[in-house]
Amino acid sequence: MAATDDIWRSYRRPRVVMREHLARARSEPRALVFLLLALTVIFIGQWPRLSRLAYQMPDQPMVGLMMGTLLALLAMIPVFYALAALGHLGAKLVGGQGSWYGARVALFWALLAVSPLMLLQGLVAGFIGAGPQLALVSGLVFIVFVVFWMAGLRVAEFETEGS
Predict the structure, then answer these.
(1) DSSP letter string over the chain?
(2) 7, 116, 117, 163 from 85: Cα distances, Å
(3) Closest by alpha carbon to 51, among 39, 64, 70, 41?
(4) Cα-atom radius of gyration of the chain, to the nearest Å?
(5) What pLDDT was estimated at residue 163?
(6) What's the CA gap between 98 and 100, in Å, rounded?
(7) Cα–Cα distance for residue pair 27/37, rounded to 1 Å
(8) CA 106 to CA 155: how far, in whole Å?
């Protein structure tokens, strides 16, 4: 099934989608692709905000802002791997039996599944700017991300056998 279909299905039944991803053959490249696709969509979602910044600060060229954002997102890749490891270790503390791989897939899929909301957040940041609207959308993005991640981690750690 296409990733876009799985993303939309995740908004209704995130645990079912995670079970399907974990039922496939273990594939580190697939997990990495989830992360890279999520970072790509998040990067694209930042363009309206960066355009607003470039307009407000003419001494900051748009290309420079985009390159800085891209490099910052790429620098976050090891942080996401560490965050997935922390999620796995936290689940182990409460009886989780999953694998490191399952924890990575849970986190990376949560990032990819929430990325359409990151596009909305970028539009709000670019067109409206800082304010209650951006705070509301940012809070929504965070809550949905946490729900997806915890649902995926629950499946990865408590509903599958570890390796």
Answers:
(1) --HHHHHHHHTT-HHHHHHHHHHSPP-HHHHHHHHHHHHHHHHHHTHHHHHHHHHH-TTS-HHHHHHHHHHHHHHTHHHHHHHHHHHHHHHHHTT----HHHHHHHHHHHHHHHHHHHHHHHHHHHHT-SSHHHHHHHHHHHHHHHHHHHHHHHHHHHSS---
(2) 23, 25, 25, 14
(3) 64
(4) 17
(5) 46
(6) 7
(7) 16
(8) 8
Phi/psi zone of residue 59: left (φ > 0), alpha (ψ -120 to 50 degrees), beta? alpha
- The model's pLDDT over 29-74, given as tens digits with 9 standing for 90+, comes to 888 999 999 999 999 999 999 998 899 888 989 899 999 999 999 9
Q: CA-CA distance, 82 to 104, in Å (whole number)? A: 9
Going 92 to 98 to 104 to 108, the CA torsion angle's sign is: negative
How many angstroms separate the CA atoms of 87 and 69, rounded?
A: 26
Q: What span, in angstroms and rounded, lies between the C-alpha atoms of 38 and 42?
A: 6
Using an 8 Å Cβ cutoff, are 152 and 15 in contact? yes
Integer angstrom CA distances of residue 68 from 45, 60, 62 = 14, 11, 10
